[in-house]
Structure formats: structure tokens, C-alpha cells
């Protein structure tokens, strides 16, 4: 086989669409069975958009970043100046992005708030008929709210093949500080870092490169 420098088709450029798993009255953790089946000749973004259990967070800024942070232990021996063996002793995965649409729904998602903290003010309340998010301190022993995440962006391969990359995270938990601002010269957005946790099968989720037929 003749030498080739590489393939520019495998260079990925472009933003991803981010969805959160929010079923009505159900657990917000995502399992593989909860992911809707792919539909022929339809992008997975459209498939998720048409599924009432998933909500599109809308515009994002600074893209989507998944960070894998393995932790390795070392074995040192007398006869070597460097370590003789490395072994894996820990793992951490984070997903980072920024929500450019500063809705109360996105803020609740960003701070891992409970669904009941966001409601419509009742009759006689000062914000009657308007959406209100309770800035709740929570209670001792509260369990953090974990939500499933699915992102769809461009995949690696020929552009005319219609390849998309699907990122599915089963358990995502916001653990970093979230700032809400109102500034004259900057948009209000929520920068958020999600800690991904593995399920009982030790899986954080899946990354899939899917080929579809482009729809004109």
C-alpha cells in the first residue's frame, strides 16, 4: 500500500447539540434501553428532538469537552531509576460546556437542582402565574441529582457520508460552581462541568460514529 500522509476526512470541526434526559415522573439516570432507536435517513438530533423524554438545552458556547483523567500508581525497584510498572488505580471523566440560553430550566440542570424546585407560582403568590426557581439549600443527607446526557455532533469520515458522532452519558452530575450574572458587556451563560459516573456495568456511556444517508 502506498504511503499516505493521513485523511482530512477524519478531522472533526463543528459544534454538538446537547440534550438532557428528563422523563416525566421517572428516574433521570439514563440507561441504554432509554436511548431511542436510530431512524433511517434521520439525524439523531431529530430523533431526540421528537422524543418527549429528552430536552434540547439549546445554544451552547465553548463547545463540548470530555476529559478522561486516569490515575496510575507506580511500582519502583532498586535497579531502575524510573518506575518499573504502572497500574491503574482510579478514573475520572468530566464533560464541560457552557449553556448560552440562560433559562431557568438550564440553570436547574446546571446546579443539579431537583425538579420540584422549578414550578409556576400559585394564586396569591407575588409571582403568580410565572415560572419560579427556588434557590433551595437542600437538607442534610440529600442525594445529588444525576441526569443523563446525550450530545450529537459531527463524526470522523467523509462529509458526503453523513457521519455523526453520538455521545451518551448515563449518569452526569454537576459538581462545580455555577455563576449567574447580569453584565452590560457579556451575555448571561452558565458554565458547567459535569462529573460522569459509571453505571453498575462500569460504563460511563457510549460514543458512536453513525453513518446516515443525507437528506436533501
Short structural summary:
This protein has helices at 44-49, 104-110; strands at residues 17-21, 54-56, 60-75, 85-99, 118-120, 131-133, 147-154, 163-174, 190-197, 205-211.
Keywords:
216 residues; eight-stranded antiparallel beta sheet; 10 strands; mainly beta; globular; two-stranded antiparallel sheet; 2 helices
What would you say this structure looks like, in words?
The chain is mainly beta. The protein has one domain (13-119, 141-211). The chain has two helices and ten strands, in the order βαβββαββββββ. The protein has helices spanning 44-49, 104-110, and strands at residues 17-21, 54-56, 60-75, 85-99, 118-120, 131-133, 147-154, 163-174, 190-197, 205-211. Strands 1, 2, 3, 4, 7, 8, 9 and 10 form an eight-stranded antiparallel beta sheet that branches. The longest helix is centred in the middle third of the chain and has 7 residues, at 104-110. The radius of gyration is 21 Å and the shape is globular. The protein starts with 16 loop residues before the first strand and ends in a 5-residue tail after the last strand. The mean pLDDT is 89.
Amino acid at each position: 500500500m502506498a504511503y499516505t500522509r493521513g485523511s482530512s476526512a477524519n478531522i472533526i470541526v463543528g459544534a454538538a447539540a446537547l440534550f438532557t434526559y428528563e422523563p416525566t415522573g421517572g428516574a433521570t439516570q439514563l440507561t441504554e434501553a432509554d436511548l431511542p432507536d436510530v431512524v433511517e435517513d434521520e439525524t439523531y438530533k431529530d430523533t431526540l428532538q421528537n422524543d418527549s423524554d429528552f430536552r434540547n438545552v439549546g445554544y451552547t458556547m465553548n463547545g463540548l469537552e470530555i476529559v478522561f483523567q486516569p490515575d496510575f500508581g507506580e511500582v519502583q525497584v532498586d535497579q531502575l531509576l524510573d518506575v518499573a510498572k504502572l497500574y491503574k488505580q482510579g478514573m475520572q471523566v468530566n464533560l464541560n460546556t457552557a449553556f448560552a440560553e440562560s433559562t431557568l430550566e438550564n440553570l436547574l440542570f446546571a446546579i443539579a437542582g431537583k425538579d420540584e424546585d422549578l414550578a409556576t407560582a400559585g394564586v396569591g403568590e407575588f409571582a403568580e402565574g410565572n415560572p419560579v426557581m427556588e434557590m433551595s439549600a437542600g437538607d442534610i443527607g440529600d442525594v445529588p441529582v444525576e441526569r443523563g446526557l446525550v450530545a450529537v455532533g459531527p463524526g470522523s469520515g467523509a462529509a458526503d457520508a453523513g457521519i455523526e458522532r453520538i455521545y451518551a452519558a448515563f449518569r452526569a452530575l454537576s459538581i462545580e460552581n455555577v455563576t449567574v450574572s447580569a453584565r452590560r458587556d457579556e451575555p448571561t451563560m452558565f458554565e458547567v462541568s459535569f462529573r460522569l459516573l459509571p453505571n453498575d456495568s462500569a460504563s460511563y456511556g457510549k460514543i458512536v460514529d453513525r453513518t446516515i444517508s443525507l437528506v436533501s
